[in-house]
Structure prediction request, 371 residues.
Amino acid sequence: MSKYSNFLIHESFLTQLTEIIDSSETIVIVAHTNADPDALASALGLRALFAQILPSKKIEVLLPKLNTVARNVWKRFQFDSPLCEISTDWPPHIDLLIILDATDYELINSPYPITPEGKIEEIQHIYAIDHHNVSEDESKYCSATHILPDYSSATEIIIEFYRYLQLEPDFNISKFLLAGIITDTGHFRYANSRTLDNAKILLDKGLLIAEINNALYNRMGRSEKIARIKAAMRITQLHYVKQIVVAISHVSSFEASACKALLDLGADISFIIAFERKQMKFRMSGRAREELIQKYHINLGEFMQQFGKLCGGAGGGHAGAAGCYGELPPLELQHPVDPSKSRGLKKEIFDATHFAQMEPKILKLLREMVK
Prediction:
């Protein structure tokens, strides 16, 4: 049996993808908004792969916004090559859009609207590569998908594309790939034998985990420190779902970092909401302890999918770390403030009032999902 036989799972999709790239003119790779190191790495890695297979094809990586850690990785490892270029502006038309680390069109913050007939006129084909659990509804705009929920990261799938084709990633691109694996496995805490085997391919090129970790390190700024402290101060009460201690709070930014802080303080599951008053929208991050995930079969990725959908948005992620976004409902207020004028409320009142409405909804769904 060939050592490449385990990679045959990728054969059919790679064949399709190669054929459609070869026949397309405008090809764009995107990821979910606020792209993390896994999204960044998988996007750069896939383009670099096809630079070897179809060198005459121009493929654009479009990542308008990177999260803080991905931005640190980008600054540390960027190099002078077309393989490392990132665009921020959407072209007027796309023949082939490749979505990485997501499948839901709503998560990529595309400027192209969906018509009443359910079409996206500016995009001819959408292909998606993801490692999250995905519903049929989320992938309904995709012409083809390659979804492998048992993989630790989208980056790991891209590395196996190289291995199946018996190619090697560029040395500089390999730094991004290793960063993508490290972050999405929690610095290998959630890695399995396949993950370690794929990481070894990169380490054998001379990469050092210490160098990657230095790039991933994010020195906490004053604003992030304040957000963490405010998140703890704004907890109105602790909640209990079975034996699980649940902490729910709200901040203006750094919601993922604040979630981690509440776990460090002792919560088993934490939810942090960030309200966008002008747009009447919200973002929410969630974190859960690993032992709780195993004991109660908790999957925050599924939770965020459902909660985001309930609120007219979308969501997803991993079992222990996930996020969503949605629309804010009208405020259920009495005198002296009219709900239709909620945008004019002072921020503190606006946030606190919406939080009071959302907190019980979060708990209700969580209680329904905890087995």
Remarks:
- The mean pLDDT is 90.
- The first helix runs from residue 11 to 23.
